[in-house]
Design goal:
heterodimer; A: alpha/beta; Rossmann fold; six-stranded mixed beta sheet; 19 helices; 19 strands; 24% strand; B: mainly alpha; MetI-like fold; 13 helices; globular
């Protein structure tokens, strides 16, 4: 290598957060370096300190975060001892950053041209805003667009273009595609890899997604509790993980067991728990012409048998969540029929005490779906009391048995806790217990694990499968993740632009997808599905070359 | 453009409703004002004069709806009838004399408190937890909890009466309005200071607090982190990114505030004997001048509507998100 100065060199970095009881360490003696042009992955779960490192590199850490020791050098420039003006001058020229949330990364009231130009105005950029957009495959005619007029993937591309405007030696990608769906994620990384080959910048990709790193990175560092527990090249790491935590993290990713065949259930049962006929949900319908701005659900006829788990898979905007909301009565259909356990879902506002609640919802956002002011006991008691036929049951005993069912034992120790005292996984268990309180025939689980850490996702999925086995509840599992769908579901229905384009036994769909869109969804899965019949794993490198 | 057209339609409808209410409300009260006035003169005037008086006040036996149509037509021609206390001066003449002064005082104080409050709020949020951030909000809220007239009386007593720093009322020193010269403008501004200062002081609190809270929200957004990461100068991060977006909620509040300031301003004008609409209104009330009152109410309502429409239009220019009909 001609240039021996590393793109990034971190030596013994320690960062703490000042709290009431003194300094709480977040990063503890971390050292690593990235060679010029190298693609480094930093993997770890939420709270392990990986984003704190990202912020420290550009010295963006805000109070109460304080760098307590160590050195950070970007392409030889010391970031910690330089004064504020010098650091400001180094930012973006030596290293730039792409943040997780593409929606809030751009100023909503300025055009993207203005925001790109703002960076170029610092001088040193060789490209015009139009050329920058072209570089990330966005039509330069969109220069005067505002951020809200672009899709999530396009916005993230704009930020990447911005990050490369001053040709830095290092680009930090802090979970850049977590909020995007797999197809968009794959397309973005194809672009990043191609640009990296052209321009030769180094990348630090921070993520919780190990399979993604297998696809894109050269080297992997695994972080836990503020320390790097293992650093290895991707090839070595795939073969053998030195540290037990790395093994835990890797094995936590659900793996589809292709050896056991699909359980084929009779297709036309006499009493399906859910049946929809020609279901339509249209938004922005013009009352004069009858034309709609958006067909969220377009003529969907679908059946779900008792005790069946069906995964409804699709990219964001495919209409899968709208479908789930209509099934539970949260949204009313424009036309068509829904029958849940023999009844049409009653809108929440018109529910009476005796109305059966055959379908219950489990929400994605485990932080927003439990009122932080109330105890777990209160949440569950309310759910039990408001369930139909509640007067006949002993509320406290029912709450305790619900908590036991979802694996929160002993129940008494959870009753008086509030949501913030629970981990994300425990919160989702409470969400499941709450949904079960009304003894539903159908659980509608809308991305129940996508906000959880990798290591607990499989536990929650296993719990859902167990609830089906023990309680006989059917599950509509809404997700964008093909792997977890194949892991848990009996059947997969693929949704695209408001229509179900393909439907069938789970493993059959994964192994022999018929529809073009299903193939794209499967191809975009980072790390591949682990198919038995010698499919190639590394889809991304395939797409790049 | 569609958005502005929609807002315009809404405000035209609101104006129409205001005019209608303004017409029907006095007529719904038992013994409507006009006949009361005529009744007081009925013993002293002869038949012909009484009829002439009735005609002048538009007191007819026509059905209500045809009176309403006549009223609408008159308003479109700018005819609000004649004043009672300054008979036979038309109401429009009296109003137009005070209107300019009220607009001057209103615009000055609203814009001043908006700009000042937003700047103070931005400063407090930028140096969050600093001394200024700890002191400014409670002090300003304390001042803001005073009623307008109370603070006005206090300041009037202190600065105009005791210290005599400022003139004791009126909008200019001479009998006639001053000429449009440097001296004249200076004189007008000098008379403006005390009443405008009162209004600014009372209304400053919410502006500061709202701006501070909006700024704190914006400061935690990713695009601010990114702006800082881009190596922009702190001034640029503050003004082009933080203040620019944090100002939006305050611009929305501007529309609502204009209504509130207007009513508070009326009382302030009375205390400082400032010759605006508030002063006219007080005279109208004390001399039971119904036509003048009715016209004043209408003018005030319509001004608030116009101000809100202007604010809505400005907002469209400031926030691209509402242009496509999405929520802000």
């Amino acid at each position: 290598m001609p240039d021996i100065t590393p793109a990034l060199e971190i030596v013994d970095l320690s960062v703490g957060y000042a709290g009431e009881t003194g300094m709480v360490p977040a990063v503890d003696g971390v050292s690593f370096s990235i060679a010029p042009g190298e693609f480094m992955g930093l993997a770890g779960e939420s709270g392990c300190g990986k984003s704190t490192i990202a912020q420290s590199i550009l010295r963006l850490l805000r109070a109460p975060g304080i760098i307590t020791g160590g050195d950070i050098r970007i392409a030889g420039h010391d970031m910690l001892t330089s004064d504020e003006a010098k650091v400001r001058e180094l930012r973006w020229r030596t290293a730039s950053i792409v943040l997780q949330n593409s929606l809030t990364s751009l100023n909503p009231v300025k055009t993207i041209k203005w925001q790109l130009q703002e960076v170029l105005d610092r001088g040193g950029g060789s490209k015009s805003p139009a050329e920058l957009l072209q570089m990330v495959d966005i039509d330069p005619r969109r220069l005067n667009a505002f951020p809200h007029e672009l899709s999530g993937g396009q916005r993230q591309r704009v930020v990447i273009a911005m990050a490369l405007a001053l040709s830095p030696q290092l680009v930090i990608l802090d979970e850049p595609t977590t909020a995007l769906d797999v197809i968009v994620q794959q397309e973005i990384f194809v672009t990043v890899k191609a640009l990296q080959q052209q321009m030769g910048f180094a990348v630090l990709l921070i993520t919780h997604d190990l399979p993604l790193l297998f696809d894109v990175a050269d080297r992997i560092a695994v972080m836990k509790d503020g320390k790097i527990v293992e650093t290895a090249t991707v090839e070595a790491f795939r073969r053998h993980q030195e540290h037990p935590y790395s093994r835990t993290l890797l094995s936590a990713t659900p793996r589809i067991d292709f050896a056991t065949p699909d359980v084929i259930r009779p297709k036309d049962v006499a009493h399906p728990v859910l049946e929809t006929a020609h279901l339509v949900k249209a938004y922005g319908t013009n009352p004069l012409t009858g034309r709609s701005m958006l067909m969220a659900i377009n003529d969907v006829s679908f059946r779900l048998a008792p005790r069946e788990i069906v995964a409804l898979v699709g990219a964001s905007g495919s209409g899968k969540s709208t479908f789930g909301r209509m099934v539970t009565g949260l949204t009313r259909p424009s036309s068509g029929d829904i029958i849940v356990d023999g009844h049409t879902p009653v809108p929440v506002s018109r529910r009476r005490k005796s109305t059966p609640r055959a379908a219950q919802m489990v929400f994605q956002d485990v932080y927003g779906s439990l009122n932080p002011l109330h105890t777990i006991g209160h949440h569950l008691r309310r759910a039990v009391i408001s369930a139909p036929h509640a007067q006949k049951v002993d509320v406290e005993a029912r709450v305790a048995s619900l908590l036991t069912e979802v694996g929160l034992t002993p129940p008494a120790s959870y009753l008086d806790r509030r949501p913030h005292e629970l981990s994300g996984g425990q919160r989702q268990r409470v969400g499941l217990a709450r949904a079960l309180a009304a003894s539903p025939k159908l659980l509608v689980a809308d991305e129940p694990v996508s906000m959880l850490d990798v290591s607990i996702r499989r536990d929650i999925l296993n719990l859902i499968a167990r609830l089906r086995d023990e309680q006989g509840v059917a599950v509509l599992y809404i997700t964008h993740d093909m792997v977890s769908a194949g892991y848990i579901a009996d059947r997969i229905a693929v949704m695209h632009r408001g229509q179900i384009v393909e439907e069938g036994p789970a493993k059959a769909i994964l192994m022999h997808p018929q529809h073009e869109y299903t193939r794209r969804l499967i191809a975009a899965v980072p790390g591949g599905l682990g198919l038995p019949d010698g499919h190639t794993d590394n889809h991304l490198t395939e797409a790049t070359t | 453009m569609l958005y502005i057209a929609k807002r315009l339609a809404f405000y035209l409808l609101a104006a129409f409703v205001a005019i209608t209410v303004n017409f029907f409300l006095p007529r719904l009260t038992p013994g409507d004002p006009a006949s009361t006035i005529v009744a007081t003169y009925s013993t002293t005037l002869n038949e012909a004069s009484l009829n002439a008086l009735k005609a002048a006040y538009g007191l007819t036996n026509e059905p209500l709806w045809s009176q309403y149509v006549t009223y609408l037509g008159n308003i479109l021609h700018g005819d609000f009838g004649r004043s009672l206390s300054n008979f036979p001066a038309p109401v429009t003449a009296i109003i137009s004399a005070g209107f300019g002064w009220s607009i001057l005082l209103g615009l000055t104080s609203v814009l001043l408190s908006f700009v000042l409050g937003s700047a103070l709020g931005a400063l407090a949020a930028w140096r969050r937890g600093g001394l200024f951030d700890k002191l400014a909000p409670p002090v300003l809220l304390f001042l803001g909890s005073f009623p307008y007239f109370f603070l006005a009386l206090l300041l009037f007593y202190l600065f105009c009466f005791k210290l005599q720093w400022f003139p004791m009322g009126n909008a200019y020193s001479s009998v006639n309005p001053p000429p449009f010269t440097l001296n004249g403008i200076g004189d007008v501004l000098f008379h403006l200071i005390a009443p405008a200062f009162t209004i600014v002081l009372v209304s400053l609190g919410p502006w500061t607090l709202n701006m501070r809270n909006a700024m704190i929200g914006v400061l935690s957004e990713d695009y601010l982190t990114l702006a800082e990461a881009k190596g922009l100068k702190p001034r640029r991060v503050l003004f082009s990114h933080a203040v620019r977006t944090a100002l939006l909620p305050n611009v929305t509040a501007l529309g609502a505030a204009i209504g509130g300031v207007f009513s508070g301003q009326l009382l302030t004008e009375i205390v400082f004997t400032y010759p605006g609409l508030g002063y006219s209104l007080m005279r109208a009330v004390s001399s039971v001048d119904y036509p003048l009152m009715q016209a004043l109410f209408l003018i005030i309502t319509l001004s608030v509507l116009v101000a809100n429409f202007v604010v809505d239009t400005v907002y469209v220019l400031l926030d691209p998100r509402v242009r496509t009909g999405q929520e802000a």
